[in-house]
């Protein structure tokens, strides 16, 4: 059954029906804007006469960028609610304040962060956001640890895995990230000058590595992951505010490998770095970009190690943790590679690259493809953030 969709004219009446929100907004005086610019949802900002505001997000029954010819269950909002529930428990300062799920209407209500900026936009503009990557790294560690078998007993973990199945959106990721960019597919498109680089992705060696990453994504239910943690799913503050970021848009949430969320961030940092290269951004900005992967990873590792003494089962030893962290780093590098590649070759490209003029776009996309393919193939050998940066700069060039 499809939930009735809201529109700007009906949001006020809906809010009036929610007595639990009465202390947050006056529905009788709200003005409403629909601001959804993603692929899957309606997003409304309701603002009352006292300038108090809320965000109402409702899942559409189809993929917005394609239309009703690509139907999609509205149940994905339940996955997003699970993501916010977990983040509220384990990392509340790194998400918008969450005001709950209306399951029958397939919508959630959130804090309005209109005064913040989507991180992709800030990166495109060449703006530095000090400490944002560390906030995201700690967020991944806190939610990853708190929802994993390290913090939960085995029965609770299995129940959580069973309750968090998200097959439709996981299938989108399986297709768009791990499958279609490496074969002829209707959704693929690229500039003609990139054809040789795209076809190089279809080598036997590359296909085997991507298949290994796909298997990890589809079978390794380590913890509740965001599932789409790119720079378009993170808000950063304006001005000189440091050490702040807010993670949002968790409808792809499911139980998967912890390294997948880190990899999504890494891959999008690569996209931003390629843009900065072709636009010849100032050294200060480029140097900051070059440190983001290490910043995120170091914050993640430090937070995970800090939480480790609270684990539920001490049969997971300190030596095991060292090995698990090494594998998670390797996973993140590989996932970062495939997440970057899909934005060049497959459906749902990104403004980092697409807003460049043709020559710059082709150059930046070529750098991304070469670098990302190297990440995937050499992820086991690139054992530290310093190793990864050294290899990356060998392709992108140094300042």
Would you mind describing this structure in some detail?
- By secondary structure, the chain is of the alpha+beta class.
- The protein folds into 2 domains: 11-111, Phosphorylase Kinase, domain 1 (2-Layer Sandwich); 117-396, Aminoglycoside phosphotransferase (APH), C-terminal lobe (Aminoglycoside 3'-phosphotransferase, Chain: A, domain 2).
- Helix content is 49%, strand content 12%.
- It has helices at 11-16, 76-90, 119-124, 132-146, 154-163, 167-178, 195-200, 204-219, 259-278, 283-290, 292-307, 318-345, 351-354, 358-378, 385-396, and strands at residues 31-34, 41-47, 53-59, 62-63, 67-71, 98-102, 107-111, 117-118, 223-225, 234-236, 246-247, 254-256.
- A hairpin with a 4-residue loop joins strand 6 (98-102) and strand 7 (107-111).
- Helix 2 (76-90) crosses helix 4, helix 9 (259-278) packs antiparallel against helix 10 (283-290) and helix 14 packs antiparallel against helix 15 (385-396).
- The radius of gyration is 21 Å and the shape is globular.
- The relative contact order is 0.12.
Brief summary:
The chain has 399 residues and is an alpha+beta fold. It is 49% helix and 12% strand.
């Amino acid at each position: 059954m499809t939930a009735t969709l809201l529109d700007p004219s009906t949001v006020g009446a809906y809010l009036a029906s929610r007595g639990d929100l009465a202390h947050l907004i006056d529905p009788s005086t709200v003005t409403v804007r629909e601001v959804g610019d993603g692929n899957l949802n309606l997003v409304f900002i309701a603002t009352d006469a006292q300038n108090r505001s809320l965000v109402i997000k409702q899942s559409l029954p189809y993929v917005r960028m394609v239309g009703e010819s690509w139907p999609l269950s509205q149940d994905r909002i339940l996955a997003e609610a699970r993501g916010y529930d977990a983040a509220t428990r384990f990392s509340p300062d790194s998400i918008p304040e969450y005001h709950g799920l209306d399951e029958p209407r397939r919508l959630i209500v959130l804090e309005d962060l209109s005064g913040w900026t989507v991180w992709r936009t800030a990166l495109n503009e060449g703006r530095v956001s000090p400490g944002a990557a560390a906030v995201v790294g700690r967020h991944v560690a806190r939610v990853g640890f708190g929802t994993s078998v390290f913090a939960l007993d085995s029965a609770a973990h299995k129940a959580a895995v069973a309750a968090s199945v998200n097959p439709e959106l996981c299938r989108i990721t399986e297709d768009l990230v791990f499958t279609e960019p490496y074969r002829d597919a209707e959704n693929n498109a690229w500039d003609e000058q990139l054809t040789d680089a795209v076809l190089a992705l279809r080598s036997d060696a590359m296909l085997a590595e991507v298949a290994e990453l796909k298997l990890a994504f589809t079978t390794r239910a380590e913890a509740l992951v965001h599932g789409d943690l790119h720079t378009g799913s993170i808000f950063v503050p304006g001005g000189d505010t440091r050490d702040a970021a807010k993670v949002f848009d968790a409808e792809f949430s499911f139980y998967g490998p912890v390294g997948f969320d880190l990899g999504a961030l890494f891959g999008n940092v690569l996209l931003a770095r390629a843009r900065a290269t072709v636009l010849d951004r100032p050294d200060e900005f480029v140097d900051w970009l070059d440190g983001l992967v290490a910043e995120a990873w170091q914050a993640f590792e430090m937070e995970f190690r800090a939480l480790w003494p609270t684990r539920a089962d001490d049969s997971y030893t300190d030596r095991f943790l060292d090995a698990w962290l090494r594998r998670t780093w390797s996973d993140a590098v590989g996932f970062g590679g495939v997440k970057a590649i899909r934005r060049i070759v497959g459906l749902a490209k990104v403004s980092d690259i697409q807003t460049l003029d043709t020559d710059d776009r082709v150059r930046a996309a070529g750098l991304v493809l070469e670098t990302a393919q190297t990440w995937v193939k050499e992820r086991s050998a690139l054992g530290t953030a310093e190793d990864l940066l050294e290899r990356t700069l060998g392709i992108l060039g140094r300042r």
